[in-house]
Q: What sequence folds into this?
């Protein structure tokens, strides 16, 4: 009888222990759930508040983004030893020529080869010229021809009288036109110089009443000594560009008329001398 009572007491104690363990586990689970739920609620509330602050105070968001970018760049610089600039590609005046329409791409590749300039920056200028041309009632090939003759597509070119950039604009004369681009130093930004130069060229053509007259006035700002030669060069280059745009194979090396004439005269003189020498040799042989 005592043995049965002892076993019953042991089973009862074990049952009580199991119930205590289960109760403890339930309490722990409920506490963990409560803490986790409260933590997630606080996190969500924090994210919501931060989002509202970023929306209402965009300057704080921009400042935070800038600090984050600077931190990442500094980390990259520490790892590679090279200080990077993620915005550099946005400042580059370059376009993939394969993304241009066929005619523009033809011109870009031809100009790149002729003037020894990479096709990507040339493509960006061709694209810009084709955008500015219709807006100013100018043929895009004329704009490109002026750039070619004026600077050879060197955005940092400067003449002896101070004409600067791709379109060789007299910066000190037209400084007010650069105010909208941040000041006179924008003369060395290819797109800014191109836009200012196109505006000046358009104004001169309208004022002169003809294309040749406008080029005559434009070259006056570029201090050329022979307006007729300048106009001929621009129009000849434009004619070549029009052919290139249509897919015509135009050589990039064009022999100047004066050089052609001189070469022809030299060949003729050599031929006459050769003829005289041949006659002299024949007469000498007969006399012998």
A:
């Amino acid at each position: 009888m005592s043995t049965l009572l002892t076993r019953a007491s042991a089973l009862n104690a074990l049952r009580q222990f199991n119930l205590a363990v289960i109760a403890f586990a339930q309490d722990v689970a409920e506490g963990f759930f409560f803490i986790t739920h409260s933590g997630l609620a606080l996190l969500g509330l924090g994210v919501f508040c931060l989002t509202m602050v970023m929306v209402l105070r965009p300057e704080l968001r921009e400042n935070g983004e800038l600090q984050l970018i600077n931190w990442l760049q500094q980390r990259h610089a520490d790892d590679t030893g090279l200080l990077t600039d993620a915005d550099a590609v946005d400042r580059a005046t370059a376009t993939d020529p394969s993304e241009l329409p066929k005619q523009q791409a033809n011109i870009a590749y031809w100009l790149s080869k002729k003037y020894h300039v990479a096709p990507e920056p040339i493509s960006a200028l061709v694209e810009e010229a084709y955008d500015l041309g219709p807006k100013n009632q100018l043929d895009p090939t004329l704009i490109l021809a002026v750039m070619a003759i004026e600077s050879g597509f060197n955005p940092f070119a400067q003449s002896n009288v101070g004409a600067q950039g791709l379109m060789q604009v007299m910066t000190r004369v037209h400084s007010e036109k650069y105010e909208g681009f941040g000041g006179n130093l924008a003369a060395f930004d290819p797109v800014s110089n191109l836009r200012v130069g196109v505006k000046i060229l358009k104004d001169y053509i309208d004022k002169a009443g003809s294309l040749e007259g406008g080029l005559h006035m434009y070259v006056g700002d570029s201090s050329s000594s022979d307006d007729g030669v300048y106009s001929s060069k621009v129009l000849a280059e434009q004619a070549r560009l029009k052919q290139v745009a249509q897919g015509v194979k135009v050589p990039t090396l064009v022999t100047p008329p004066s050089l052609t004439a001189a070469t022809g005269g030299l060949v003729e003189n050599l031929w006459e001398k050769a003829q005289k020498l041949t006659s002299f040799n024949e007469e000498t042989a007969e006399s012998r």
User: Anything to note?
Assistant: The chain has two domains: 14-80, 97-245. The longest strand covers residues 163-164.
